[in-house]
Amino acid sequence: MSHPSCHEFLSSLSEYVDGTLDESLCNEIERHMEGCDNCRIVIDTLRKTIELYHVTAPQPSVPDEVRTRLFHKLDLDEFTGP
Amino acid sequence: MSSSTKTPEDFSLPALRDGDRSEFARLVEAYSGFIYRLALKLLEDPQDAEDVLQETFIKAYRALPNFDGRSSLSTWLYRIATNEALMLMRRHKVSTVSIEEPDESSEEQQEPLQILDWCCAPEVELMSGEARRVLDQAIDTLPESLRVVFVLRDIEGLSTLETAEVLNLSETAVKTRLSRARLRLREQLTGYFGERQRQQAMEEELE
After folding, report:
1. Does B97 touch chain A (CB under 8 A)?
2. First to last CA, chain B
3. What letter does residue A16 receive in the DSSP assignment?
4. Which residues of B touch A11 (CB under 8 A)?
5. Is the Cβ–Cβ distance between B152 and B78 less than 8 Å?
6. Helix extents (H) in chain A
7. CB contact under 8 A, A7 and B108
8. What is the pLDDT of residue A2?
9. Which residue of chain A is at minimal alpha-carbon distance from B192?
């Protein structure tokens, strides 16, 4: 992030790593990155950040006792069987 | 008892609107996992998450006769759940660092930027208990308006459009907030993993 243009790209990096950024801007970032290690590092660590949260996300399960209380609260006890 | 964000919308709307208990039980079964997890991530408290879970389905059951089907059932449920969670968050003021809404117009330029390449740090690969806590704490420091977008998009895997519908925001606003949330989290993780990596390098030099 040493060039003045680095900061201009900052708000586009999130879409860049998602692959949803407009193609011309995408090309511009890639051209810039060839000569700018700092931007490459920011992009790599941004991508890694997203990946870490994604990978470590907990499995979607409700503890049994929470489920039982939920069904009871909703007057659905008869449907709590497996 | 598990469910995923990709639950098919194979519910009978007429039955649900008529208050069919069995169909409603199927709906609860299908979405309770997602809603519980969402609330847990936003509130960081199992009791609060359970309250949100119960309130969401109580409200949904009452509102179903008037559900117009303009949004999908899942989006509609997530919206009820997110609103419940946000209400609790505001009541508890869980967000201690910043409760302010971010100013959409102010630019990212003001955000600090640390340059350290920690992608291959051994700590990252191991994902120790401490590293996991760092991830959770980093989310906690986000203002709620950024946190809720990040949780829906990057943790729960909703699309930009779905997130926009749940939060009643434009897709552009979702993208802007997601970008800010991600950059802030990257800063926090750089602070932690980068520092660990630097320490390790210094120790190796001394050996």
Report:
1. no
2. 53
3. H
4. 107-108, 176, 179
5. yes
6. 4-10, 13-18, 23-34, 37-55, 64-73
7. yes
8. 54
9. A49
Give pLDDT tens digits for A35-74. 899 999 999 999 999 999 988 776 668 999 999 999 999 9
CA distance B93 to chain A (A): 24
Which part of chain B has CATH 1.10.10.10?
109-206
Do the chains contact at B58 and A73, CB–CB below 8 Å?
A: yes
At residue B119, the pLDDT reads 84
Residues 157-186 of B with CB under 8 A from A: 157, 175-176, 178-179, 182-183, 185-186
What band does A3 get if pLDDT is binned at 50, 70 and 90? low
CATH topology of domain B13-92: Rna Polymerase Sigma Factor; Chain: A (1.10.1740)
Q: What pLDDT does B69 receive?
A: 87
Spatial separation of the C-alpha atoms in residues B170 and B155, rounded to whole Å = 20
- Measured CA distances, B193 to A45, A46, A48, B122, B130 (Å): 10, 13, 11, 9, 11
Comparing alpha-carbon positions, the chain B residue that sits nearest to A40 is: B117
Q: Look at residue B103 in the predicted model and tell me its pLDDT.
A: 53
Tell whether the model's pLDDT for residue A16 goes beyond 80. Answer: yes
ipTM of this predicted structure: 0.89
Residue B141 DSSP class: T
Contacts of B175 in chain A (CB under 8 A): 14-15
pLDDT of residue B10: 85
Place of tokens 């008529």: B18
Report which of B39, B53, B54 is spatially closest to residue B94, judged by C-alpha positions: B39
* Residue B159 with chain A: CB contacts under 8 Å: none
HSE-CB for B123 with a 13 A CA cutoff: 21
Domain B109-206 annotated CATH 1.10.10.10: yes
